[in-house]
Amino acid sequence: MTQVNSKSIQEILQEALKKDGDFLKEILRRVLQQVMEEERDRQVGVLSHQRDDIKRKANRNGYKPRSFNTRVGNLLLAKPQIREFAFHTCLFENYQRSEKALLSAICQMVTDGVSTRRVQKIVGKLSPDLIFSKSTVSRITQELDPQIKHWREGQLKDHYLYLFTDAVYFFLRENHQVVSRPLLITVGVDKNGHRKILGVDIALEESYTSYRDHFKILKERGLKRVDLTISDAHKGLKKAQQEVFPGVPHQRCICHFMRNNLSKVPYKERTKLAAYLKQIYASPNKQMATSIARLIAEKYQNSYPKVSRLLEESLESTLTYLSFPVSHWRKIRTTNLIEGALNKDLKQRSRVVGIFPNKASCLRYSCLRLMEIDEEWQTGRRYINMPEEDHKKDMNDTLLREIKQIKEGVNTREELMVS
Fold first, then answer.
1. Does 87 map to a domain?
2. How far apart are CA 17 and CA 34, in angstroms?
3. Rounded to two decimals, what is the model's pTM?
4. Which of 35, 51, 82 is the endpoint of a domain?
5. Which residues in the chain land under pLDDT 50?
6. Do 369 and 354 fall into the same domain?
7. pLDDT single digits (tens) 222-268
8. Domain tally for the chain?
């Protein structure tokens, strides 16, 4: 930035003290004005009224009124003009009407779930002469679109252990109507146990086509290999996963599965059935889980046959997690990573908005919040601890090894002691 000499600052202070009103605001206005004057002198090549045709690059052409919003209020500046070319200042961009710190604060308020109307009121209370309409606040947040695009289109790792996918619905306006649209979200867990939000897309509906396009974009960005996919039992989602990631095992979310079962019995019976179903997923191995499910199916065979049929037909898809490390089971058998950590947060913050004006604003709001969460995940604790070192340590402990073998039904204690 052009430096203002001490004599200019002294003059500015003296003139500001003689005036009534906001002292700090007047000082800032005069400093900015003086900086622009010296910038024009440098661009023109000579000082005002100096006659030197050799050094002169252009001619002064008066001033143009310019308003500039700052934290101390709205400043009315006289922007210098140059006849031969456009005057450029380092203080602000050509179409910028507010300082960047103020713009960042407004964007952060919107990200934190503050409505555009409330942002307008908050800024008005900070400085009564600052005028920000709802459309202005929305236009300010659009300046983050290039950053959002870079985040959504960034290169991905080629291998993720686990891939979680789910959708959350928002209300928005399309063709003068209020419609509900799904936001498709995919989260990956890498080989180090860290979480990352891999993909975010708004679709017309949850369908095979929308999910297929969603997953294909992930592959185009570098994702090649996945060890396990986790989602609900949406047919289009499962079909798309099998097509884009062929041969990858799928884990059906046990929470969704239990809800489906509970919806098939009266309210008074749900507590008891829920307790039965929990015993399935408390089992140490697939054999025991299947045996318990068979007992539950037999109990409800006559009274609630739909429960028995669902257990017989769909239980297998909810037990895939048993083939993976035991320390990962609780984290990979549900989609709570998305539903609890992301969807709930987005829905709660979106209540102040209610209905988004369009698809772009909904995606922008969601991505701004998800970018913050993603950054916290990358710098925070691991979501899953890798079991390799812990497993070796446990195998050296005789008692732990014995307990694990007994739980898995390998041997009795007596047989182990004999061996």
1. no
2. 17
3. 0.67
4. 82
5. 1-7, 95, 97-98, 389, 413, 416-419
6. yes
7. 999 999 999 999 999 999 999 999 999 999 999 999 999 999 999 99
8. 4
